[in-house]
Amino acid sequence: MLVLDGKKVRDEIAKTLRTKIEAFSSHPPHQHSRSWCGGKPKLVIVQVGDNEESATYIRQKKAFGETIGAVVEHQKLPGDVSEKDLLAVIAKLNADTSVHGIIVQIPIPKHLSENIVVDAIAPEKDVDGLGGVNVKRLWENKKSGFMPATTKGIMSLLSYYEIPVAGKHVVVVGRSLLVGKPTAMAFLNADATVTIAHRHTTNLSEITRSADILVVAAGKPHFIQRDDVREGQVIIDVGITAVTGEKLNEEITEWVIAGDVDFNDVKDIVGAISPVPGGVGPMTVASLFQNLVSAYEIQTKV
Ligand code: NAD
Question: Which of 18, 83, 92, 156 to pair with 237, CA 20 to 30 A apart?
């Protein structure tokens, strides 16, 4: 069984991005461009309220950004900020030529419309790829769009391990705008035959077992077990849930991060699997910064 090591691939991506960013600052091709900012791609992460999980993800993004020499700015807004005020912050960042990428950390409080907010980000700065323009580009299989980071990370992980996708049956469990839907579309664009399963799917085990590549993004710790998989499958576990052992029927007392797949239960059956932690999570962060560097190149015409 092959473990798809997202940390190793992330570190290789980091090396490539660091070299690129060093070259931006030492060989500025358009120094007189209005968006010249010392050769450092800049990402602004807007956080609304105090979600603990979001704070963890933001810390990871800041740490990776530092490693590669990008600038990451964290703007915190109060949890009761009005939509109008949030949109004004985004408009200001859209107009700021020293900012190349903007993220509004999801989830945002319920009184705000996620669709309106992400659509307000200028498409060329929408490095999370969640705005309408980039979603349409993914549907149209146009390379000019930004692919959502988790989806891009999954595709890069498979490509690194030279796992073929064309002609394969891919089952994606989960249909969120953030993960399930864009991932299904990316596989379709890569010539796979795609099935999307979700919480109303009745014969889930039968469907998951029929996959050549099974992607699980349901947010249900360890819900894919040995009866749901078959020999030789490639398993991509996207799930990240903080749990204690009690929930997993294990004698773990402290909080741990669990994936959607019971790794130990399936590891002797499947052909390859991405672990949690250390699989898709690190790939997501690296892919976001690949998008940021592309955004920088587009905006400064490197
Ligand atoms: P979500 O809650 O928006 O969507 C979950 C999806 O799973 C829904 O479409 C739902 O229909 C489906 N689902 C739920 N229960 C199911 C069941 N019993 N059977 C079949 N389908 C079921 O979540 P999301 O934002 O898509 O995230 C999914 C998971 O991935 C979460 O654990 C999240 O933390 C994780 N995540 C990880 C990364 C990463 O970088 N690794 C990035 C984003 C999200």
Answer: 18
Class of the CATH-defined domain 31-125: alpha beta
- Per the annotation, the verdict on 61 as an active-site residue is yes
Per-residue tokens: 283? 């790939």
85 part of the active site: no
Site to probe by mutation for ligand 1, drawn from 238, 256, 273 as the one with most ligand atoms within 8 Å of Cβ, is 238
Q: Is 284's C-beta closer than 6 angstroms to any atom of ligand 1?
A: yes
* Tens of pLDDT, residues 223-262: 999 999 999 999 999 999 988 766 677 776 778 899 999 9
DSSP 125: G
Q: What is the CATH number of domain 149-280?
A: 3.40.50.720
User: Taking CA 121 as the corner, what is the angle to CA 12 and CA 219, rounded to the nearest 5 degrees?
Assistant: 60
Q: Please give the Cα distance from 233 to 158 (Å, whole number).
A: 13
- Give the pLDDT confidence of 265-291 residue by residue, as tens digits: 999 999 999 999 999 999 999 999 999
**Quick one: which atom of ligand 1 is closest to the CA of 284?**
40
Q: Where are the domains of the chain?
A: 31-125, 149-280
